[in-house]
Design a protein that fits this description.
By secondary structure, this protein is of the alpha+beta class. Helix 7 crosses helix 8 (about 210-230), helix 8 runs antiparallel to helix 9 (about 240-250) and helix 9 (about 240-250) packs antiparallel against helix 12 (about 355-365).
C-alpha cells in the first residue's frame, strides 16, 4: 500500500553548480585578479557571498587553438572573461560550415513512439533522483564538458576575415547573456586559452553590488562589440573602417523605461489606450528636431502620430532598427529635419545615439544610390502592412479599420516570437489542441485556451517564447533558460526550486506552478518544511517531439497557428487568408 505522501529534498539554487570542477583554490585565484580583486566583498550578503557566486555560478574552461568559444546566432546564457592566452572575435559573419552549427537534434520515430506509449496517466509525476546535467554534445573535439567545435583552417579564417584580438582580463558575451538574446559575433581561440564562464545569474548578482564591474563591462562593450553592432546596420554596412571608428567614438548610450515593466503590466491593462500611452516614457516628441539617429540596441519603441484627440500607433521597432535615417536622405531631407512621429519606450529600451552631424557629414556621403534606395524601402516596410491596417470589422454595417497594431503593442504581444493565435470563426471548441498537448506532456496540458481577443482572433495563454523573456530575469538558478540554438524558452526540472519568480514575472500568465507527485501519484512533500513541492511548467513547443507543436498539428480546421507577432507581414498573411 503506497504512503499518503512522498518526501523529496527541495532543490536549492546551488545544488547543481555551473562548473563541477570549480574549487575553493580556483576562487582564491580569481579573487586575486581584476576586476574581482577590486570588488568590495562586504557589499555582498552572507547568503550570497562573492566567493559563493564564483564557486557555484562560474566554471573555468580550456580551449585549444581554433576552438569556438561562442558562435554568432547562438542564444547566450553566460558571459566570459579571458584568463590566459588570446582569443579572436570575428568582425564579419563566418559561414555556417566554418562554425559547425549542427542541426537541432530531434528524437527518432521510435523514440517518439516510445514517449507516447509511456505517457504517464498521473498528473505532474517526477522521479526523486536528479537527471545528469551535461553540456550539449556537439562532438568535434573532446568529450563531456570539454567538448568543443573548432575551426578547420584558422590561418585561412584570419586571412579572409576581419578580426579583433582579445587579451587576458577582457569580458565578452555579457550583452547577449543579460538581454537573453543571440550572440552577435563568433569568438575563437587563437592560442591555447583559459576562459572563465559566468552564467548570467551570477553576473547579474555581481553587477548589482559592484558598480565598477558594470562600468568595466560598458567600456569593453564600446571597445569590442559596438563596432560589430554598428556594422550590422544597413546605414553603416559599407562605411570605411576609419570612418566607422569616428562614428563609434561619437556614439552615446541611452536607456529609457523600466526593466520591471512586467510588474506594472496588470494595472496598465485596465487603462484606456490614451492613459497607457501617457505612461510610456517619451524619447522624442512628434515634430521635435532630430539631433541623433537612434539605433535600437534592445527592447521595443512605439512610433505614433496625432490622430483626433489622441495618438495612433504607426509602427513599432525592435533590436537593430534605426530611427531618423529616412529624414536625412532622399527627397525629404531638410536642413533641420524633425521627427514625423512621437517615439516612446515600450517597457525598457536601450538605444545607441549617433549625432546628426556625424551621420550627415561622415556617413551619408559614402552611401551608394542602391544603398539609399534600400534604406528608404526598409523604412517603408517598418510601417504596418496595409493588409494589417485594413483588417475590417462591421459596426452598424459600416466597415471601419481596426487598430490591430495598437492592440499588439498595448498588450505587449509584439514580444511573442511563437504566440498562439486562434481564429475563433474557424475554431469549433473541440479541444483537440488541448488534448494533443496533454498527450505530449504526460497528461498535463501546458496551455489554456483563453486569452485576450481582438476581433475574431484570440491570443491564447501559451508561452510565446518571447523576444525578451522577462520570466528569466529573476530566476535564481537559471532553471528557466533559452535553448542555445532554437531559442525555445525551457524549464529545467532538476534545477527549478519552485520559487514562483518566473510565474509572477510573466506578464501573460503563461507559467503555472504545480504540485508534483511521485510515480505512485502521491503528493511530493518537502522533507525539511513538510510542505508540498511546486514546480514551474509551461509550453515548450514540443521541442522533444517530432513535427512541431502538437497543438497546431491537432487542429483539423486550420484555426490555430504559432506565429512571430513582431513580423506583421507574417501575421497579416495568416489573418487575411
Amino acid at each position: 500500500m503506497p504512503t499518503a505522501e512522498a518526501t523529496f529534498a527541495r532543490p536549492n539554487r546551488w545544488d547543481v553548480p555551473f562548473g563541477e570542477r570549480m574549487t575553493n583554490r580556483d576562487v582564491e585565484r580569481l579573487l586575486g585578479v581584476e576586476p574581482f580583486r577590486s570588488i568590495d566583498r562586504a557589499r555582498f550578503p552572507a547568503t550570497l557571498p562573492l566567493e559563493g557566486i564564483l564557486l557555484n555560478d562560474a566554471r573555468i574552461v580550456e580551449f585549444d587553438p581554433g576552438d569556438l568559444v561562442v558562435r554568432e546566432g547562438d542564444y547566450g546564457n553566460s558571459a566570459f572573461m579571458l584568463l590566459h592566452g588570446t582569443l579572436r572575435v570575428a568582425l564579419e559573419s563566418l559561414s555556417p560550415d566554418a562554425t559547425g552549427h549542427p542541426d537541432q537534434a530531434k528524437p527518432s520515430w521510435f523514440a517518439a513512439l516510445m514517449q507516447a506509449c509511456s505517457s504517464q496517466q498521473l498528473p505532474e509525476v517526477r522521479r526523486p533522483h536528479r537527471a545528469e546535467v551535461r553540456d550539449q554534445e556537439v562532438g568535434v573535439r573532446g568529450a563531456g564538458a570539454q567538448t568543443h567545435v573548432f575551426l578547420q583552417d584558422v590561418p585561412r579564417v584570419l586571412d579572409e576575415t576581419r578580426t579583433a584580438q582579445l587579451f587576458p582580463g577582457e569580458f565578452f558575451g555579457e550583452l547577449a547573456a543579460l538581454s537573453r538574446s543571440p550572440r552577435t559575433a563568433t569568438v575563437f581561440a587563437e592560442t591555447k586559452a583559459v576562459v572563465l564562464e559566468l552564467r548570467w545569474q551570477g553576473l547579474r548578482d555581481i553587477m548589482r553590488r559592484a558598480p565598477a564591474l558594470k562600468e568595466h563591462i560598458d567600456r569593453l562593450y564600446r571597445t569590442n562589440s559596438l563596432r560589430v553592432h554598428l556594422r550590422e546596420t544597413p546605414l553603416l554596412a559599407d562605411l570605411p573602417a576609419d570612418q566607422l571608428e569616428l562614428v563609434a567614438a561619437a556614439t552615446k548610450f541611452a536607456s529609457h523605461g523600466s526593466f520591471d515593466w512586467n510588474t506594472d503590466f496588470a494595472s496598465v491593462e485596465s487603462l484606456s489606450p490614451l492613459e497607457r500611452l501617457a505612461r510610456e516614457p517619451v524619447i522624442a516628441e512628434e515634430g521635435s528636431n532630430i539631433s541623433n539617429v537612434l539605433l535600437v540596441r534592445s527592447g521595443f519603441v512605439r512610433l505614433s502620430e496625432r490622430f483626433g484627440a489622441g495618438h495612433r500607433t504607426v509602427a513599432y521597432l525592435g533590436k537593430g532598427q534605426m530611427i531618423g535615417v529616412a529624414e536625412l536622405i532622399g527627397d525629404v531631407a531638410t536642413v533641420q529635419p524633425t521627427h514625423p512621429f512621437a517615439i516612446r519606450a515600450v517597457g525598457h529600451v536601450d538605444l545607441l545615439e549617433i549625432p546628426l552631424e556625424m551621420v550627415r557629414d561622415t556617413v551619408i556621403p559614402t552611401l551608394s544610390p542602391d544603398r539609399i534606395k534600400q534604406l528608404v524601402e526598409t523604412t517603408q516596410r517598418a510601417r504596418p502592412p496595409r493588409q494589417v491596417d485594413q483588417l475590417l470589422v462591421s459596426h452598424n454595417d459600416v466597415a471601419a479599420p481596426t487598430p490591430l497594431v495598437d492592440f499588439l503593442v498595448d498588450q505587449r504581444l509584439v514580444n511573442g516570437a511563437q504566440a498562439m493565435v486562434i481564429d475563433l470563426d474557424r475554431c469549433t471548441r473541440c479541444d483537440d489542441c488541448v488534448r494533443a498537448c496533454a498527450t505530449m506532456h504526460d497528461g498535463n496540458p501546458r496551455f489554456v485556451r483563453e486569452g485576450p481577443t481582438f476581433d475574431r482572433f484570440q491570443f491564447a495563454g501559451a508561452c510565446m517564447h518571447c523576444t525578451d523573456p522577462v520570466c528569466m530575469i529573476g530566476c535564481p538558478t537559471g532553471a528557466i533558460h533559452r535553448d542555445t540554438q532554437s531559442g525555445v524558452v525551457r524549464i529545467s526540472d532538476d534545477t527549478c526550486v519552485g520559487c514562483s519568480t518566473c510565474a509572477n514575472s510573466c506578464p501573460y500568465n503563461s507559467i503555472r506552478m504545480v504540485e508534483i507527485r511521485d510515480l505512485f501519484g502521491q503528493p511530493a512533500i518537502d522533507t525539511e518544511k513538510g510542505l508540498p513541492i511546486l514546480k514551474a511548467t509551461k509550453c515548450d513547443l514540443c521541442a522533444d517531439g517530432l513535427g512541431g507543436p502538437a497543438c497546431v498539428r491537432a487542429c483539423s480546421h486550420d484555426a490555430l497557428v504559432r506565429i512571430d507577432l513582431a513580423d506583421l507581414d507574417q501575421a497579416a498573411a495568416w489573418m487575411n487568408r
